[in-house]
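RECORD TYPE: inverse folding
INPUT: structure tokens
STRUCTURE:
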């Protein structure tokens, strides 16, 4: 009892893969006699041959992760509060250094020396930067 050709015909009619074709095991003799596309169409209409639903991706592993608290939104990283605070601080310090250079209050050599220091976290704030410049005598007098 080989139903390979019937399965192939049914798959081409229904536009699905051969593995998705289900054939009613109680009506095998009826299906075995169907050799044309019209006969297969009639059997599909009667419900003797049907297409199984598509198999999706299982969410089982995802559910286990969510149970353990590792679902979407649980990852920590660059969007932390500490990073936002750092960005605000470093932008203010760099802006102050550019301003001092443009006003020629510090030389470009001093500017070049202070930028990596700022990047390395040497200055807590703009005020701390100003205090550092004062204490080391780096601000030029006009």
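DESIGNED SEQUENCE:
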């Amino acid at each position: 009892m080989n139903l390979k050709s019937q399965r192939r015909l049914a798959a081409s009619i229904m536009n699905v893969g051969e593995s998705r074709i289900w054939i009613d095991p109680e009506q095998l003799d009826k299906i075995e006699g169907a050799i044309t596309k019209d006969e297969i169409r009639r059997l599909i209409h009667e419900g003797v041959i049907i297409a199984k639903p598509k198999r999706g991706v299982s969410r089982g592993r995802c559910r286990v992760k969510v149970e353990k608290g590792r679902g979407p939104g649980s990852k920590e990283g660059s969007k932390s509060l500490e990073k936002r605070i750092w960005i605000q601080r470093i932008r203010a310090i760099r802006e102050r250094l550019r301003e001092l250079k443009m006003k020629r209050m510090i030389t470009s050599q001093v500017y070049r020396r202070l930028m990596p220091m700022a990047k390395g976290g040497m200055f807590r704030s703009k005020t701390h930067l100003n205090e550092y410049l004062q204490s080391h005598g780096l601000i030029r007098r006009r």
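NOTES: Residues 65 and 71 are 6 Å apart (CA to CA).
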